[in-house]
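Let us practice reading a record.
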Amino acid sequence: MKRKQGWLFFIIFLLTFSIYLLINFPLQLGLDLKGGSQLTLQLVKENGNVTKEELEAVNAVLDKRVNNLGVAESNLQTLGRNQLILELPGEQNPLSASRILGKTALLEFRTQKVNTSLELRNLQSLRFKINDLIEQFNISDNQSDVNSSIIKDNLTNIENELNYSSTNLNLFNKLIDTRKYINNEIANLFNKTDLSGKDLINAGRRQEQTNNNWEVLLSFSNEGGEKFADITKSIAGTNQLLSIVLDGESISEASVGSQFINNGITGGLATISGNFSAEGAKELEVQLKGGSLPLPIEIVETNTIGPLLGSDNIVKSLYAAICGLIFVGLFMIFNYKILGFVSVISLIFYGFFNLALYSLIPVTLTLPGIAGLILSIGMAVDANVLIFERIREELINGNSLIRSIDSGFQRANSSIIDGHITTFVSCLVLFILGTNFVKGFAATLGIGVVISLFTSLNCSKTILRFLTTYQSFRQKSLYLNRPNSF
């Protein structure tokens, strides 16, 4: 009796824990349910002949960057010989995603050329002014409120000093374009070294203690750490600066103190501090973690899939699932009476356990995934049908209720386990060989098969044994068509 109560308390605990998980860890929805962005990317190569290996290499780097963005269940597939289609669920700003994904992210470390200090200071001063003008746009909720005439005049003065004219863009993009030009000019004042992003093994970010700016942390391999130590040793205590260059733009220049003259900066760690915002530091971290693209890419098309279509799909899927559960429940209760009622309770437990596991793993729900969930409900009911038919056979043969329940579960075990194993193997094959949406279907169906095995063999039996402890639930009419009591 204590063992039965233990199972009952364990099932109630699992139900409570499942509800807690669903409240605190909401389900993740895919692109077809939540909406998001769809980007068409094209690889750029001079001769236009992109090899299959190059396409796969770009695919691998983009996949890493998407994972570092925190986008779940993204879909990245090839289109023709030189294009990729990327779907990002929940990302409603394709421009933000394209900024991160479209950069080559070629990281270099350069040392300052001799006799360039005056020119460098002038360029850094102009960059500071440009950043100040850009900041005026960023701190304004409405760019139309910005005094564009003053900014335009300042930009004109800066361009005159640079002897440079930005392309025919709007004012904000002209500022960005001018800053890029300045950063490129600064990078040209530095000599390349043999230390690059290939020597990088990790990147992170943190907020500086003295202000609200963020900085990016770099971690090198053993060989990269030795290179970094040699480079910093060569310029330590001099007027030469060390520049960190990303895609040809100098994003940070720093001096190396005289205390590093003997050994350089050892430990294989470096910090990029370039007045980054939290978003800017995250973007750089994602690009560096993903690695540099072997070929540049262009965003040739961006589409935003609104959440309205996703909400319609959710409502329709919810109606379908509820209607299916109601019809299944009515069928089970009509045919199996108290046994059918037990199966309905077990199905409710099954639903909570399933959804809680989706949120815990997490599994991103798509329409095919919901189809897999609904199909797995049929598997759970099918197991109960096998068990209940065995129980009825035992009762007809004259066995007692408790003996019939135990024997019914025992006799149906092998058939249920075999059926679930074959279905799970099919799900495993689909998950390994299928595309993303097929994987979503296979994942939800596979998880459902495993949980239905637990609910049908343990939850149903525990609930049924608990009910039969009450005399009112021990009437034969509740189990068979012929009235009699045990």
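A brief commentary: Residues 401-433 form the longest helix (33 residues).
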